[in-house]
């Protein structure tokens, strides 16, 4: 039975999962969830994710939600297929640190900025300049730490591409289409790392899913 | 060389790490960081955690930060010592889901409430009632999901106590000393689970 991802092609959280599946050359079925119609808040979806959020995931009798739990499951269970996205032993400890950094330092700020600068205009809502002004410098400080880290390490978690890098892709790609691109461009190591990971063939496949809709 | 935890005993993030070390009967040295004096923002500490937050951790030449990365390292590297805090194979996937839930669903609302109802009064600052009201409502919804989950599963991640439960302890304990305790008391499975852990 093929793996299923319940989600939407423009959901940044779902895109993390698609990216992991493409990196590992794994077959999957996308089960679209019509978020505009509120499908994700209805009983049959809440049975899959009680928090009413996408994505949700099934691999046989394994049923999961929370994008970063799903990507870690895929990375560990299918460790022998496609790109290695996690490691064993001590090197994984440092990969673990930078996965937490993405989730707790980068994502809260990047998500707020993405909402203001990418999603609100799409939905015909007005950007709140004060929110942008407050969060832009905070993101800049996080990227300063990334610049220092990437001067010592080829990728965030170690010298190889891992989930610590992959988890950034959806929100970062969105921010690159806004004036905040300048924050990345101003930092050479960050800029090179961003260009490198966004150029990965698996990521192009994820974006192609979006462009088909 | 003994493991070191750089932190403060009041820091809920540091407490996650201490809890893990005690569960596993592991020796460690506590290196206090004087946050009141801003020590966590100074060069020497930034070398351990460039984000200037506690805790930071050392095990020989391995240096880590982010409490949940530290607890997971300890749980894997010392899996044969003391309480098993993780599972192997497919059951770990479900533990992982509920670890993410603590980090992304529970902690955001709970930390805000802890700040308003506990830390602000310690620092002589005024509680913002609107923030409390908003986050109590959010936390209630999360706890409704927990109540349903705990009707099917003894602990959050499965039938054994794991990091998925442990990570809640510091903030949960703080909230139990505030009016938010009522939200836990109103839900029998959640209440029993909280008392147990």
Automatic annotation (TrEMBL), chain A:
Pfam families: GST_C, GST_N. It is found in: Cytoplasm, Cytosol. The keyword Cytoplasm applies. SUPFAM superfamilies: GST C-terminal domain-like, Thioredoxin-like. It catalyses: RX + glutathione = an S-substituted glutathione + a halide anion + H(+). GO terms for molecular function: glutathione binding; glutathione transferase activity. Residues 1-82 form the GST N-terminal domain. It is an enzyme of class 2 (transferase). GO terms for biological process: glutathione metabolic process; toxin catabolic process. Residues 88-213 form the GST C-terminal domain. Keywords: Cytoplasm, Detoxification, Transferase. Its main location: cytoplasm. InterPro entries: Glutathione-S-Trfase_C-like, Glutathione-S-Trfase_C_sf, Glutathione_S-Trfase, Glutathione_S-Trfase_N, GST_C, GST_Phi_C, Thioredoxin-like_sf. The keyword Cytoplasm applies. Its EC number is 2.5.1.18. Gene3D superfamilies: 1.20.1050.10, Glutaredoxin. CDD domains: GST_C_Phi, GST_N_Phi. GO terms for cellular component: cytosol. Belongs to the GST superfamily. Phi family. This is glutathione transferase. It comes from Rhodamnia argentea.
TrEMBL record, chain B:
Residues 1-82 form the GST N-terminal domain. Transmembrane segments: none annotated. InterPro entries: Glutathione-S-Trfase_C-like (IPR010987), Glutathione-S-Trfase_C_sf (IPR036282), Glutathione_S-Trfase (IPR040079), Glutathione_S-Trfase_N (IPR004045), GST_C (IPR004046), GST_Phi_C (IPR034347), Thioredoxin-like_sf (IPR036249). Its main location: cytoplasm. One of its GO terms (molecular function) is glutathione binding. Gene3D superfamilies: 1.20.1050.10, Glutaredoxin (3.40.30.10). Keywords: Cytoplasm, Detoxification, Transferase. It is found in: Cytoplasm, Cytosol. GO terms for biological process: glutathione metabolic process; toxin catabolic process. CDD domains: GST_C_Phi, GST_N_Phi. Residues 88-197 form the GST C-terminal domain. Its EC number is 2.5.1.18. The keyword Cytoplasm applies. One of its GO terms (cellular component) is cytosol. It catalyses: RX + glutathione = an S-substituted glutathione + a halide anion + H(+). Belongs to the GST superfamily. Phi family. This is glutathione transferase.
């Amino acid at each position: 039975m093929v793996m299923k991802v319940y989600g939407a092609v423009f959901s940044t959280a779902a895109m993390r999962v698609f990216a992991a599946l493409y990196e590992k050359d794994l077959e999957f079925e996308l089960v679209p969830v019509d978020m505009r119609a509120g499908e994700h808040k209805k009983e049959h979806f809440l049975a899959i994710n009680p928090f009413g959020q996408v994505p949700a995931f099934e691999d046989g009798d394994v049923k999961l939600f929370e994008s970063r739990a799903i990507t870690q499951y895929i990375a560990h269970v299918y460790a022998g297929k496609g790109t290695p996205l996690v490691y064993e032993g001590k090197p994984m400890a440092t990969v673990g640190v930078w996965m937490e950094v993405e989730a707790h330092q980068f994502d809260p700020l990047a998500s707020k900025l993405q909402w203001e600068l990418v999603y609100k205009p799409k939905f015909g809502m007005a950007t709140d300049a004060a929110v942008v002004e407050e969060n832009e410098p905070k993101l800049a400080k996080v990227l300063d730490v990334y610049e220092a880290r990437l001067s010592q390490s080829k990728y965030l978690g170690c010298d190889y591409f891992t989930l610590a890098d992959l988890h950034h892709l959806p929100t970062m790609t969105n921010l690159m289409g806004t004036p905040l691109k300048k924050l990345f461009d101003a930092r050479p190591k960050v800029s090179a790392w961003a260009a490198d990971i966004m150029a990965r063939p698996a990521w192009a496949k994820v974006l192609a899913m979006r462009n088909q809709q | 060389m003994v493991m070191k935890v750089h932190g403060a005993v009041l820091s809920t993030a540091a407490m996650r790490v201490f809890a893990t070390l005690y569960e596993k009967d592991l020796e460690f040295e506590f290196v206090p960081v004087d946050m009141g004096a801003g020590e966590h923002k100074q060069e020497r500490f930034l070398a351990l955690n460039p984000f200037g937050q506690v805790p930071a951790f050392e095990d020989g030449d391995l240096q880590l930060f982010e409490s949940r990365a530290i607890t997971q390292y300890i749980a894997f590297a010392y899996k044969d010592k003391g309480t098993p805090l993780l599972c192997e194979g497919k059951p770990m996937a479900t533990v992982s889901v509920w670890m993410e839930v603590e980090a992304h669903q529970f902690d955001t609302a709970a930390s805000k409430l802890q700040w308003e109802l506990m830390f602000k009064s310690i620092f002589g600052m005024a509680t913002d009632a609107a923030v409390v009201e908003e986050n109590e409502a959010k936390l209630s919804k999360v706890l409704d999901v927990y109540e349903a989950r705990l009707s099917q599963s003894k602990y959050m991640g499965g039938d054994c106590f794991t990091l998925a439960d442990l990570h809640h302890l510091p903030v949960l304990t703080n909230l139990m000393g505030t009016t938010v305790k009522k939200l836990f008391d109103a839900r029998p499975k959640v209440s029993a689970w909280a008392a147990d852990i």
